[in-house]
Amino acid sequence: MSTCTGGAGGPRRKNNYEPLLLENEREAVADLLQYLENRSTTNFFTGSPLAALTTLSFSDNVDLQRSAALAFAEITEKEVREVGRDTLDPVLYLLTSHDHEVQRAASAALGNLAVNAENKLLIVSLGGLEPLIRQMLSSNVEVQCNAVGCITNLATHDENKTQIAKSGALIPLTRLAKSKDMRVQRNATGALLNMTHSDENRQQLVAAGAIPVLVSLLNSPDTDVQYYCTTALSNIAVDGTNRKKLATSEPKLVQSLVQLMDSQSLKVQCQAALALRNLASDEKYQLEIVKFDGLKPLLRLLHSSYLPLILSAAACVRNVSIHPANESPIIDSGFLQPLIELLSFDENEEVQCHAISTLRNLAASSERNKGAIVEAGAVERIKELVLTVPLAVQSEMTACVAVLALSDDLKPQLLEMGICEVLIPLTNSSSVEVQGNSAAALGNLSSKAAEDYAPFNAVWNKPDGGLHAYLVRFLSSADITFQHIAVWTIVQLLEAEDDQLTNNIRSSPILMSSIRQLAASPPPSRAGNRRDPNEISQGSEDDYDEDGLTDQEGEGEIATLARRILDLTEDGRPEGEGSHFSVHGHGRDESQVGSAGNEHAALRASIHRALSGGH
């Protein structure tokens, strides 16, 4: 809080007051002078010192009120502690004075006391907002400054925010944010920022007209004001309705935030990137950030040694990469190597997740981009790290491999790199998402992989029981999604007509027993309800489709595929069957938090994303 207390408002010598003072006032003045001379050992918040200050505060003599207010301001500047009503009542009474000197010093004292959490609540409960709002409307800049500063401090407590919003303070705060006095401007924008931490208060701020004021102040020469406004707008942009309002009313917002990523202040750079990240939840802003040259400063921030900058830039690029039109510009701007390097950034899991999710998004639409990502070394880095990174990063990495494995041209290369050697152990992960994504990647690799299926034979029994153990586990899983992936993958492997692979499958009693069981008698439906719209379902024998089938219908498809496996292993392959694996739907990943459904629906959604390559 910027304070504007200024110097002393008048002498405190007893002789100046004696002709006009009441007896108790003269005694209070004498006592206060003595206490001030011994201020280092005096507790002014209790006993006789507080009684002397209280007497002077409630005096009708404005000079005595000035002395009391200045004393409170000076004392609280040096020492802040939790106080009671007996201390706050005289300070709040001084706020009602018509004298600017008294108002200024009293609001400074109250702002100092409002640093303490318990005091914040007591000040509001005792009615402190009303006189502070009156002082914000004062024509005196010094009074405005201290009153707004006090509101800023009070607004740091969550329990006060709603009270402040309902008190009528937002409109004067918004007006004072445009003050020509930089101290007032800092305090007002700081208060507005403190009011942006809940949805209800954000909507009230927007209604009070704060958005155009905050946007205009992004160009302030003061870095504190820039920081407060950038952070406030970042919080406001969390809400979709507010982003739409910003999109229609603030055409220069993106340009201003892009410029602030080159600010001299690291905290301003960081908040500008975070504001752009939140805006980039919407397609319009994803395109605008690229259009207005936001990629260059984002790339520079990714190379920073300051973690908050790296994190904010990585989160922003992740959202920008959601739009298919941005994939090639991001790759062509030189982001691949820094993103791949960040996969090893083990001091922050979130940075790793943002980096790998961005790579997955960049691979979604274009064969060219998939090839560029593999050529840049992403798969080698994933293979090196994936078994040791945190589960959340494993999930993203395996999903990325699943998307890359959609490319028929890249499958032989991925198999040659030995990617199956790390995917197979992860099908037995403690995380169902990692299990599903790893299985999806293996399934994608198995479809039209190459003329040579030797890489699958090489991992049939190892590592960790190999491909064989993974298929057995998934076939016997209680989740039909896992059963579905397993039978579909086996069909793809058999359609390759590799003698050794076919023999491996045919000669496994446990594998064939599971297949026969699934073919002969599908398990009874658990629900018959419609599936989650993001789940995987089998549209034909060789295409995954997203058609909203019931569990019962999905189980019937598993039985159909299982019978097909029996045909391919025992009765020969039927003529005219294809082996194309196409995926419909999209699974682009965004940096935001969403609500989770039940584990089954979440698993299916995760596998759907892993198997997805479209938009």
Automatic annotation (TrEMBL):
Any one GO biological process: nucleus-vacuole junction assembly
Function, as annotated: Functions in both vacuole inheritance and protein targeting from the cytoplasm to vacuole.
Highest taxon of the lineage: Eukaryota
Subcellular location field: Vacuole membrane
Keywords: Lipoprotein, Membrane, Myristate, Repeat, Vacuole
Start-end of each ARM repeat: 86-128, 127-169, 168-210, 209-249, 252-294, 293-335, 334-377
Start and end residues of each stretch annotated as Disordered: 517-556, 570-615
InterPro entries: ARM-like, ARM-type_fold, Armadillo, Vac8
Example of a GO MF term: protein-membrane adaptor activity
Regions of compositional bias (Acidic residues) in chain numbering: 540-556
Keyword Repeat in record: yes
Organism: Kwoniella heveanensis BCC8398
SMART domains: ARM
Record's GO cellular component terms: fungal-type vacuole membrane
Similarity-based family: Belongs to the beta-catenin family.
A Pfam family reported for this protein in Swiss-Prot or TrEMBL: Arm
UniProt keyword annotation of Lipoprotein present: yes
Ranges annotated as spanning the membrane: none
Record-given protein name: Vacuolar protein 8
